From TrEMBL:
Gene behind the chain: recG
EC number(s) per entry: 5.6.2.4
Domain Helicase ATP-binding as annotated: residue spans: 269-430
Catalytic activity of the protein: ATP + H2O = ADP + phosphate + H(+); Couples ATP hydrolysis with the unwinding of duplex DNA by translocating in the 3'-5' direction
Pfam families on file: DEAD (PF00270), Helicase_C (PF00271), RecG_dom3_C (PF19833), RecG_wedge (PF17191)
Role played: Plays a critical role in recombination and DNA repair. Helps process Holliday junction intermediates to mature products by catalyzing branch migration. Has replication fork regression activity, unwinds stalled or blocked replication forks to make a HJ that can be resolved. Has a DNA unwinding activity characteristic of a DNA helicase with 3'-5' polarity.
Protein known as: ATP-dependent DNA helicase RecG
Family per record: Belongs to the helicase family. RecG subfamily.
Ranges of residues in domain Helicase C-terminal: 449-608
Signal peptide region: none
InterPro entries: ATP-dep_DNA_helicase_RecG, DEAD/DEAH_box_helicase_dom, Helicase_ATP-bd, Helicase_C-like, NA-bd_OB-fold, P-loop_NTPase, RecG/Mfd, RecG_dom3_C
Keyword check for Mitochondrion: no
Length: 676
């Protein structure tokens, strides 16, 4: 199997240069990678429908005998149409094919086939256009459906996979040792690969899936253990003195007990002899920034540099603004490095950094680019870490001879998952909000309440408050409600004509975004219509309304993040979730949002409702790209894989035993392809 990763996709029969390029785009540059490109769904052909009662408009299977072989009818513009007719003993089905003369040879009169496609009907006849078909006696029961790309149909991918499966060595080297397979009742790799692509039946498919999910999670866990366990050698950046008291005197407020505790715990790490590796989890608004600032301050007062990495430019700028206001009175020099900074200024900044004229560097992931060199980087803070990959953290750590690491997360990750994914980190929890906060009320309403909602927004504006309105997309056909630009126009011209309205979305230039955000934080805009770019961390205490259109489209954790943008000041705030959705799951989600504001609780509920697969699927976790675990429906496999990974890691951390070589190759494969 490992050798198939070295075999280029082009070597497969039927894959030429052009098609090879498409396969590469899909993430399958090699035969081995193609075999790991699992179907995203399956068509179950095992229960064909009678023609008369076949569902209309959705694909279905029909078993019927050809009573009239295909005939050619030419139509305009060089299009050739082929028409045939089939019968299932009860009714007749018209079949049409376009520009496909091969059907003339493939469909024979009096032979029975399985047709798969969408049925349309009028009162005279039932019809299927361009169905797939298979001779009935050799028809597969289950067909794979692959994620397609332009120019590469699911069927073409399937054909290539069939060729690739022929190349599997026999016997195959299975990365999961026989003992382990037996213990966990898992089938062999060759069985799993054959059946994940071309299942003999649904049962074999389930077995194959279980095995591949287990394998992928096991490999993932082993890789994470390896990253986490990477030496506990002594720190070069041990702090000599704790300057927390001095820092607290700079703060315009008194820290909460939870903040003090978190600072104390992290400070003990910094003063100890080993590099800190700590995760601070705190609900939105719990004041994580102040904790980070305290630690940066002490590190800097001990003669080191510190870096703070934020997931978006907006957030980086905001941090730079707050922290430079807070820390410059203490003589601390703060720099801001983002992707959009002009080249000349970047150069200047880098020079200042390299000779130690900047103490605290704040930025986006531009911070980890190779040209950025620190003189003495002792502490790295990453904010809202779920957007940052473990690799990015590792890259930063590698810069300065293993500095202390502090990671801040607003817990969109349920505790159970977090423990598995950040098992190597020490944890501090901010379980207390700063005093004086008003409770945020949350309401879920249907779109017919919109007029009332706007009059509420208007009242808030009259009181001097500001509002966010979140729409799912920028623009595109769709409904007006779903488009930031169209929505903004409607607000300006119709709903809130006298108010100051601005919009913000990811396609805008960084400078524009910055200007819009700046005006909003200065209170010069009443309503900000935005995509979820404001989701993470933005802090405008005067904003009191968060209105979310199409709220059913968001996960609970995401809604919770959005809601966290309000209720940050001393004014009562309201989160309004507008949704027309009527299905049980959507309603259940909205209900949870209305009933609790506890981020931990919400994360757990989200996990229960959607399963961990959804977490692995949404790519915000910063883990390598998983191929199958994102189809997982419950936590079972993850727990199973984790405990096995621990056992293996404890006995053979380098995976050097002969029976672990296959696993080692897979770990390399997964983490090598790892792009964030
Ligand atoms: P988050 O944990 O979501 O990153 P922030 O650090 O952005 O939260 O803090 C949210 C708001 O609360 C900020 O306006 C901050 O100045 C304020 N804040 C933080 N700690 C305290 C405190 N102990 N007392 C009062 N206000 C605080
Ligand atoms: Mg924050």
């Amino acid at each position: 199997m490992a050798s198939l990763y070295g075999q280029e996709i082009q070597t497969l029969k039927g894959v030429g240069k052009r098609r090879a390029e498409l396969f590469r785009k899909l993430g399958a540059p090699s035969v081995g990678a193609l075999l790991r490109l699992y179907p995203r769904a399956y068509e179950d052909l095992s229960h064909p429908s009678p023609i008369r009662t076949a569902p209309l408009g959705t694909p279905c299977a029909i078993r019927a005998t050809v009573i009239q072989a295909p005939r050619e009818t030419r139509i305009r513009g060089g299009m050739t149409l082929y028409k045939a007719r089939a019968d299932d003993g009860e009714s007749t089905l018209e079949l049409t094919f376009f520009n496909n003369r091969f059907v003339m040879n493939l469909l024979r009169e009096n032979e029975t086939y399985l047709f798969y496609g969408k049925v349309t009907a009028n009162f005279l006849k039932r019809e299927m256009a361009s169905p797939e078909f298979y001779p009935a006696e050799s028809c597969p029961q289950v067909l794979p459906v692959y994620r397609r790309t332009n120019g590469l149909s699911s069927r073409m991918i399937g054909n290539a996979v069939r060729e690739a499966l022929r190349l599997l060595p026999d016997p195959i080297r299975d990365p999961i040792p026989p003992m382990l397979r037996k213990e966990h009742s898992l089938p062999r790799l060759d069985f799993a690969l054959k059946n994940i692509h071309f299942p003999g039946d649904m049962e074999s498919l389930a077995l194959a899936r279980r095995r591949l999910i287990f394998e992928e999670l096991l490999v993932l866990q082993l890789g994470l253990l390896k990253i986490g366990g990477r030496s506990r050698s002594r720190s070069r950046f041990q702090l000599q003195k704790d300057f927390t008291a001095e820092f607290y005197s700079l703060l315009p407020f008194s820290p909460t007990e939870a903040q003090k505790r978190a600072v104390r715990e992290a400070m003990a790490d910094l003063l100890g002899g080993f590099p800190m590796n700590r995760l601070i989890q705190g609900d939105v608004g719990s004041g994580k920034t102040a904790v980070a600032a305290a630690l940066c301050h002490s590190a800097i007062r001990n003669g080191m540099q510190a870096a703070l990495m934020a997931p978006t430019e907006i957030l980086a700028r905001q941090h730079a603004r707050t922290l430079s206001a807070l820390l410059s009175p203490a003589g601390i020099r703060v720099g801001l490095l983002t992707g959009s900074l002009p080249a000349a200024e970047k150069k200047k900044l880098r020079a200042a950094l390299a000779c130690g004229e900047i103490d605290l560097l704040i930025g986006t992931h531009a911070l980890i680019s190779a040209e950025v060199k620190f003189l003495r980087l002792g502490l790295v803070v990453t904010d809202e870490q779920h957007r940052f990959g473990v690799t990015q953290r590792a890259a930063l750590a590698a810069k300065g001879g293993r500095p202390h690491m502090l990671i801040m997360s607003a817990t969109p990750i349920p505790r159970t998952l977090a423990l598995m994914i950040y098992g190597d980190l020490d944890l501090s929890v901010l379980d207390e909000l700063p005093p004086g906060r008003q409770k945020t009320e949350t309401y879920a309403v249907t779109p017919d309440y919109r007029t009332r909602v706007f009059s509420f927004v208007k009242k808030q504006i009259q009181k001097g408050r500001q509002s966010y309105i979140i729409c799912p997309t920028i623009e595109e056909g769709g409904s007006d409600m779903a488009s930031v630009t169209a929505y903004t126009e409607l607000l300006k011209n119709k709903w809130l004509p006298d108010c100051r309205i601005a919009m913000l979305h990811g396609k805008m230039k960084p400078k524009e975004k910055e200007a819009v955000m700046d005006r909003f934080s200065r209170g010069e805009t009443d309503v900000l219509v935005s995509t979820t770019v404001v989701e993470v961390g933005v802090d405008v205490p005067n904003a009191t309304v968060m209105l979310v259109e199409n709220a059913e489209r968001y996960g609970l954790s995401q809604l919770h993040q959005l809601r966290g943008r309000i209720g940050r000041g001393t004014h009562a705030s309201a989160c309004i979730l507008i949704s027309a959705a009527q299905n049980d799951e959507a309603l259940a989600r909205l209900k949870i949002m209305c009933s609790t504001s506890d981020g931990f609780h919400i994360a757990e509920e989200d996990l229960k409702l959607r399963g961990p697969g959804d977490f692995f699927g949404n790519r915000q976790h910063g883990l390598p790209d998983l191929r199958i675990a994102d189809m997982m429906a419950d936590m079972g496999p993850l727990q199973e894989a984790q405990s096995v990974a621990k056992e293996i890691f404890d006995s053979d951390p380098e995976l050097s035993l002969p029976e672990h070589r296959g696993l080692r190759a897979e770990v390399r494969q997964l983490f090598e392809n790892w792009t964030d």
